[in-house]
Design brief:
255 residues, Rossmann fold, 51% helix, two-stranded antiparallel sheet, alpha/beta, 8 strands
Length: 255
């Protein structure tokens, strides 16, 4: 049975905590059922609001984890009291640790050139015995059909249980939806900037800022040129739309 969901602006956000997320992934690997995980915060929800195709991709995912505290708070407000944040970088570390005794095989897809190799090295030092069976840093341009087939063959040949996808939203969500039926791996997880966080290329927000929903502010200060437009447009729009939903003035169907 898959986790229940909370409708936030038309996106079905899984009403879960970290323990439940790990249990769900264990079940997918045990049964070899193919699923992808969207690790989603306000940015992902707003991308889904603007683009029905991105919303459909989220709603067809095996899990949509509440990556940001606003989604946690809203889920609780809507009646799902046991929801906690399932933050992508933390999920990656916990699942790697969890995998050692179970023998899960991991593949790293994404990041700039050299990043997945460095990430693999760091994770294997941190978690001795962790099996990372391959990595690939794709070019920024779209792959040709031939190149894409080679990537699929390369990943399938490595026989991973989990493919970590370190692209950006919504690029990683599109990639997972397009490839989940072509890859033999039962689990694809889009974790965005986790590759850069865990290799030290980008600093993570202090825990107190994460817990209080202020990570967006810290990331804007760290990368103002890239992120200020995103947060200045997404955050006010998200608040306004959520108020309309909570007051019953506008409906957001899950499609």
């Amino acid at each position: 049975m898959e986790p229940s969901r909370v409708n936030i602006l038309g996106v079905g956000v899984s009403a879960i905590n970290m323990s439940q997320a790990l249990q769900t992934i264990d079940r997918w690997i045990e049964t070899r059922s193919r699923n992808y995980v969207c690790v989603t915060g306000v940015h992902g929800v707003m991308e889904s609001h603007r683009d029905p195709e991105i919303r459909r991709i989220h709603n067809q995912a095996g899990m949509v984890t509440p990556d940001g505290m606003p989604l946690v708070w809203l889920s609780r407000l809507m009646g799902s009291r046991n929801v906690n944040r399932v933050y992508g970088p933390d999920l990656m570390l916990l699942l790697c640790e969890h995998s050692v005794s179970r023998g899960y095989r991991h593949y790293l897809y994404g990041g700039n050139e050299g990043v997945p190799e460095e990430l693999a090295n760091r994770l294997q030092i941190r978690f001795p015995g962790l099996q990372i069976v391959g990595n690939y840093s794709p070019p920024f341009r779209p792959l040709t059909s031939r190149e894409d087939r080679k990537v699929v063959d390369m990943i399938n040949h490595a026989e991973p249980d989990i493919v970590w996808v370190g692209l950006s939203t919504p690029k990683q969500e599109r990639w997972m939806a397009e490839h989940s039926g072509r890859l033999s791996a039962p689990v694809l997880i889009g974790v965005g900037a986790a590759f850069d966080f865990h290799t030290g290329r980008i600093r993570q927000a202090p825990k107190w800022m994460q817990k209080n929903g202020l990570e967006w502010l810290f990331r804007t200060m760290m990368e103002p040129r890239r992120l200020w437009r995103r947060y200045m447009s997404n955050n006010p729009g998200f608040i306004a739309l959520v108020l309309l939903q909570l007051l019953g003035l506008r409906r957001f169907p899950r499609i």
